[in-house]
Write a structure and sequence with these properties.
Pfam families: DUF4956. Helix content is about 60%, strand content about 10%. It is mainly alpha-helical.
Amino acid sequence: MKKIIEMVAIKKVTTVIVLLLTAIGAIGQLPPVDVLQEATINSTSTDFFAFRLDVFTLDFFVRMVIDLLSMILLIRFIYYRIYAQRDYFFTFFMFNLLIFIIATLLTSNSGFSIGAAFGLFAIFAMLRYRTEDISARDMTYLFISITFGLITSINMGTWIEIALINSIILLLAFLIEGNLLFKPEFVKVVEYEKIELIKPGSNIELINDLKQRTGLDIHKVYVKRIDFLRDTAVLKIYYRGIDGKDK
């Protein structure tokens, strides 16, 4: 109970700190008072509702196309081909698109200030996903998605240079995740009842029994926990292939 109270207190303190930093960042972006007064005098209702489209240039749309093509190649033809999961498709693409748009607005003359960006990040900090923990591999794909959004939006190089950088990242991801260098490895946690096979000298028999019963290409087994009261053990099995089947 004490630990839960401490965690709640830490979250509240963190939220307050983020809000304070946001306020400081927003205040730091405000122009001087005399500039504000002059702008107020010279402004009209038409100026208030004016909408600038300077950011939506040909360069913006070409960069967006490069970004989306990179994401399609990464998620559809690398991630989905290997793991056959669609759970994080929306997360990957929307994070990428949001980062791309925010970074583009920050580096343009659209009036989107750093203070506003701090405000968005403060909102993100107060929200959290109420789902299961994301795996390290899925988190890596999320970071790659964010990287694509940043590279294509703020890189000062040409379109060809941006496409080349993204292609290098995609090629490395394909070589590491694909079957060209080595087969992908997966992990499952199972509860096993033949406790006599978990002895160090019975490793081969244990793997063969698990292969026969699961149909997976298991090559390594790690004993996590042993329950002598129920004569069971919790095993972490390492296998290759996609859903237990090699490509």
